[in-house]
Amino acid sequence: MIIHHPLLGPRDASEFVHLGDATLLSRPDWQADDAIAQFHEYLYQRENPAGEYRELWYHEQGDRSWLIITRNTLTHEISSVELARDVARKGSAS
Amino acid sequence: MAKPTLQSRSRLAGFATEIGGISLREICDISIISIAKPLHDHALFDQNFIELFNQAPPLAPTSLRLKSPNCRVFQTQIDQWFVIGETNTIQDKFDYVTDQSDGWVALEISGENVILALERICPIDLHTDKFLIGHFARTMMEHMGCIILRTDTQTYQLFSASSSAESFLHAVETSIHNVT
């Protein structure tokens, strides 16, 4: 599988490590009144879609960047690759 | 009490060989520093960089080769660059500087069939029309992280962790044997 890194171009998937759901970027406020419920949701509840899924990948054997990759879980087709930093700054991880 | 005498020793003791027209040697006495942008003060970093190197920080895959100071600069990750060569005069210019010299081993591989040897272990597209002279990539070979830099038509420099220097050398040397 080839991942088109937004800065470096096409790279082999073996250079990357898969972390999981991109919503992990949106860490709950630990001081919120319902923080325990929010963290339970954050840590344990995952969608398992048959189709497009946004997930975090780490370019460990490369430039050490975190990426958000939109991948179709049925076909493995990758439709979008973004720098996680840019997504986090825009506040659109979920 | 006897006065100790210390001698520097490179990771591969100055290894050099030639196999089937491909030469492979360790680059000794290399100086590497990393410089990084402060999180909230990119403008000052860019200004200092341009003052020193007369150019903006190069972006991957392009490296910057300079005569004064005598060094090469390339981006190793977002907001971080390696300076290889004459580094002692530039360290004061930047806030975030790390001496990386002891952490890396450097090899130079060259020869007519050098790509044949590299393409078996390097996942980067090394086609000469794609990977130009001065281009570099941070990738892996035989599961070891490395940087590959093309310095001439048929010459490449490879940088990998000094802690696994001999394993890295073995991987490259074996690949040369497999194509010659």
UniProtKB/TrEMBL annotation, chain A:
Gene3D superfamilies cross-referenced by the UniProt entry: Folate-binding superfamily
Gene Ontology BP terms: tetrahydrofolate metabolic process
InterPro entries cross-referenced by the UniProt entry: SoxD (IPR006279), SoxD_sf (IPR038561)
One annotated GO molecular function: sarcosine oxidase activity
Pfam families, A to Z: SoxD
Protein's recorded name: Sarcosine oxidase subunit delta
UniProt organism field: Paramylibacter kogurei
Phylogenetic lineage: Bacteria, Pseudomonadati, Pseudomonadota, Alphaproteobacteria, Rhodobacterales
From TrEMBL, chain B:
This protein's name: Sarcosine oxidase subunit gamma
Pfam family, one: SoxG
InterPro entries with a match to the protein in the record: SoxG, TrmE/GcvT-like
SUPFAM superfamilies for this protein: Folate-binding domain
Source taxon at top rank: Bacteria
Lineage: Bacteria, Pseudomonadati, Pseudomonadota, Alphaproteobacteria, Rhodobacterales
